[in-house]
Design brief:
about 190 residues; single chain; 9 helices; mainly alpha
Length: about 190
């Protein structure tokens, strides 16, 4: 009878080959382990969100939304394209952008002590258009003096040094520009006067 003991030098059929996993095993996607991903990257994702949003509660929500989106898109993850950490940070970056956009759309609530000081009337939009129209009717020299001195709050000396026009000339232009604006706005308010 032949000896039935296996040859120890022969590779067993169940043992992996010494050269590594077979090419077929590499192409099989590994399952997305949510718990392991959270344990490994949750803290750094949370820190990133806190730094971006400056709000711990929103950061916690972002991390939760990041892992929810990662779970839903787990079939799209490819370790050959990027690491798991890079993929998760890319998802979180989009979540943070979404949160920042939603914050910008929400109206701000003022504390009660500031409500009395808050401006509630934006005024008549026609008033704003009248000012723009009046500025457009001024000469470029008069308009620039009016804007730089009265709207930007610069001094006559600063504008004079920058433009090379004397301060006295700038004062004269400002006077006539203000008078023309006043006349224009008076006529717009009381067309029959």
């Amino acid at each position: 009878m032949a000896d039935m003991t296996p040859d120890p030098s022969a590779p067993s059929p169940a043992a992996p080959s010494p050269s590594g996993p077979s090419p077929a095993a590499e192409s099989v996607p590994q399952p997305f382990d949510l718990a392991a991903a959270y344990d490994e990257h949750g803290h750094s994702l949370f820190g990133f969100a806190v730094n971006a949003l400056r709000d711990r509660t929103l950061a916690e929500d972002c991390v939760q939304e990041t892992f929810l989106r990662a779970w839903r898109a787990r079939d799209q993850f490819s370790p050959h394209r990027a690491s798991l950490k890079t993929w998760l940070f890319a998802i979180e970056r989009h979540v943070i952008i979404d949160v920042q956009r939603s914050i910008q759309r929400m109206p701000r609530v003022l504390p009660p002590d500031l409500l009395d000081d808050a401006v509630t009337d934006d005024g008549d939009p026609l008033d704003r258009l009248s000012v723009i129209e009046g500025l457009a009717k001024l000469s470029p020299e008069h308009r620039s003096v009016l804007i730089e001195i009265h709207l930007e709050g610069r001094s006559y000396a600063e504008v004079s040094a920058e433009s090379g026009v004397s301060a006295a000339t700038l004062r004269s232009r400002s006077f006539y520009a203000l008078r023309a604006m006043r006349d224009h706005l008076t006529i717009r308010k009381n067309p029959h006067a």
